[in-house]
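Researcher: Here's the sequence for the chain we discussed earlier.
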Amino acid sequence: MKNYYKVLNVAQNATEETIKHSFRALAKRYHPDANPDNAVAARRFTDINEAYSVLGDAQKRAEYDAQLSQEIMAKRMAAETAAQAANAYQSQAANAYQMQTPYAYQVQAQVQAQVQAHLAGVRDKAFKDGYDSGYKNGYTASEKEVRRLTAALKNASADIEKLKRKLATDDRNIIELKSKIAEKDKAIKAAFDREKSLDNQLQWLRNSAQAETAATQVAEPAEQKPAEIVTPIKEVKIQQKPAADKKAQPEKKEEAKKPETAKSTAPEKKEPKAQKQPVQSNEARGAAWEKKLAADRQLAKPTLYGTLGVVIWATDEEIAQSYNRLKKRITANKNKTKLEKINNAYAVLSDNKKRAEYNKSIGISEEKIANERFLIAENKKASEEYRAKKAVKDFWTKYDTLQSLSLAGDADAQNELGEMFYYGKTVKRDYKQAVRFFKAAFEQQHPAAIYHLGVCYLNGEGVSKNKTLGEGFLRQASNLGYVGEDLL
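Model: Thanks. This is the structure I predict for it:
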């Protein structure tokens, strides 16, 4: 049985690393490419591979060690038996020889003793030299490997420290960027909301005025006053003043003297246009009214009305319904802070006296509220017709509920509205509106909204394209446990 440890020049208790290192060195030394036409080197290379195939495998090595131990034990027992037999034979021969020649026996015994002592010394020295050599080689190899691993570990630790410092710097930069962006977004949003609110109200008033102008062209002179009800109250008062001017009366009489001329000059082609105009005006008024509602919600957002998810001119019944809906939802979510907030808001708005004082504190007069409620009633039919053409009633019911919850600060509702405007399946696609709702939910650390906001920044949808900021939002969403691919 071959002693594979001797083939690889390692001790029997050598480590796996020592065996591997010795194998590589011997294989390189006796490789056929390095020793062409050398049969001895080829046999040696074969033995080295055979030895490593056994000692390099933990299971095979264990089996080989067991077999080697048995073989060594058997050789030792055989040697001991042979030695005992030799000793017995020598003893018998010595006894016989001693009986014949006592002096010769003594000389032979002394020589044998000297030879045995010398052989024992040679064996001990050879064993010690071999052990020392193997130990030294193994220790040197292990020390070299330890130094290599220590250096590699030191380099790795240095790299890790560099990466940590860079990551800390990046995180600080990201936080600073987020802070700056948040401040700028708030300023821009405030200005945008003010401008948009004014534009929406102005556009709505213009559309209403155009609708009234078209309606008065078709109606008879006696029916002009009811048509003027659609315009704001202040405009009605302004239109009534010329009627009190005495100088204007003769002009009206002169106009009244020429009814036949007016009838004769009126072309018949205007009649179909006059019949279609109210339909177009109604649709335009409905679309403008939806925009005005959005502006009204933004106006109510920083107030107690916004806390309850209603506009400033909401009725007592609408306030109570919204409060009960919010209370049920917030109680289920066990959010004590929000529950206390809506309770305080309802305590003010449900009391007529407190509500009047609060309206005065935010610059809203009772005349303004009455005027807005009047406009809501007047435009109810136009809004219903507009919504009937755009989608089913169930959608608009859900849409109004989401808008109310969003206004009250519900992050889930804000995110859902953002997705609704992002995809544009049930409403017209509007990336800016989507970003506005995503940002509102982001302020409450809503994971899905943060992810969606990151995608908008990556794609430049509704905001200026910013890859760094977009990836930062995606990473933040991932840290909060949200990983999505729905918008990418």
